[in-house]
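Obj: model holo form, ligand = 3-acetylpyridine adenine dinucleotide.
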Amino acid sequence: MNTSTDEDHQPQGHIDRYDVIIVGAGFAGMYMLHRLREAGFSVRCFEAGSGPGGTWYWNRYPGARCDIHSLAYSYSFSKDLEQEWEWTELYAAQPEIERYANHVADRFDLRRSITFDTRIESCVYNEADHAWTVTTDKGGTGRARYLIMATGGYSVPAKPQLPGLETFKGEAYYTNQWPLHEVDFSGKRVGIIGTGSSGVQTATAVAAEPIKHLYIFQRTANFLVPGWNRPADPDYTREFKAGYNAFREEARWTGNGTLFPKVKSLGQLTTGPIAHLEGDALKARLEELWVTGGLYFFGGVSDLMTSEVANERVSDFFRQKIRERVRDPKLADLLTPRGFFIGERRIIAENGYLEIFNRPDVSLVDVKADPIEAITPDGVKTRDRTYPLDILILATGFDSGTGAMLKVDVRGKNGQQFRDKWADGPVTYLGLMANGFPNMFMLAQPGSPSIRSQVLVSIEQHVEFVSDMLLHARNTGIVEIEAGREAEEAWTAHASDVAAKSLFARSETQYVGANIPGKPRVYLAYLGGVGLYRKTCDAVRDNGYEGFRLRTANGTVSGSETWSAAGDTPRVWGTAV
Ligand code: N01
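Output (holo structure tokens):
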């Protein structure tokens, strides 16, 4: 039992005071900062990186790019920003997305409120003054009524269990902690462990370098879809920008927040079920979707995650495409995903990945058949042989969803540790708050659509909901906001019920924590769709912040302790982006 009091954890000495402290200057933190500052709150944001962008700051590995059209994967809150920013490619690469993050920071004068190169190590709630005190790794402290954790769903690397990793004599890099300096691949023997989105993008880019040899260590073959990336088409950009408002609004009410743009220069996407189609009609439909490219393919198959027949048909079609693109039938076979539904694991948008296997200087190592036993000073040792390497790249994923929240020492009422609260998996109300941790909000965390949605759509909704709530609190003298215990239980149960209805529930992936030994198995995102989620939050707000306990300085309590689902059927959607 924890017998310490809040005061035990209060740091001594100088304390900077704010209305709000934000942890993280990624896309969520930056918009939160802007919105609250515009509303007149004093705000300080702390960021571990040296620049803004969060995920798009850290994941600067070769080939990193988004897999949603950049015109959509961008902020919608400023109409001027939307119109003035010019993307150079259909799917922007990391350097351009990072430039965009920096542009936003400058354009909205955010830097003066951000402390870079500073990690928040602990956050302690003081019940007496309804405020949080944070301490940084630089020894600084700050106090604020509200604490907003904009810490991201993909910010803590999963550290794979690879004995001897620290003994490797060459250069070793995690894709999600890629160094700021250039990495020279010329004449090098390079190994990449992991074939998720990061591994596939890295491998494609590294293969384009003047390497000596590239070894790709694959444990599970994933479903791939070509992105058909290309330079931005001026007609498409013009048309898209002309229809921005309608596009954004429609996307907000979809399942995963993505929408195939309805612009003439792009053509049309036929949408609907495919389980009833046969023969040429089925083939024609799938070929049409294939040419559309990217994850939009999946928006065109409405029964993908609800009909096993539809799912199997699409899977077979994708498997056939691998055989058409990879010349060596044995290699094609190894690259063929089997044993799971398409969409269950993250589908990967690629641009020329499969073709690299037609080259003599690229090898696929099947580490399911020949497992990695150790990393030696010289390279990777599998059961059957050793692969000498100069550079080892770990594209081994993240401690998804919960990793970043659990990394910080967060203590709520009565000194309760947040790590204890989530010991059996994340419990939240709307993914935004946890009972026992008043005045602390979380953005794009488990329990919200977050990592299974177009995350900028989720982020903007969260930021607007939370800032409206803080304004409401300021206007009505509320000093403490806390998620009700019953509301939290009801929401967590609802999110779990919704996940159980989807084929997703069968997945043994990062989405349920399966990639981290000992991590509790909980579906890490709300699968009811961004539209229903938004509708729910709107109703919560309109019902006087149902499910939240709102306390004024003199002890008056409003809001409510409970929440009940409105009865809408969640749209259990399929594709992740
Ligand atoms: O990570 P992952 P990621 N030995 O967990 C393998 C987003 N993202 O960084 O599948 C051998 O998907 C592991 O193998 P297996 C996106 O949302 C987006 O690629 O467990 N292999 C797997 O192949 C995505 O969902 C973009 O059998 C080991 C890989 O490492 C999320 O980030 C780009 C191993 C991990 O794949 C995470 O993607 C990049 C071991 N010991 C990322 N341990 C966009 O395009 C792990 N693996 C927007």
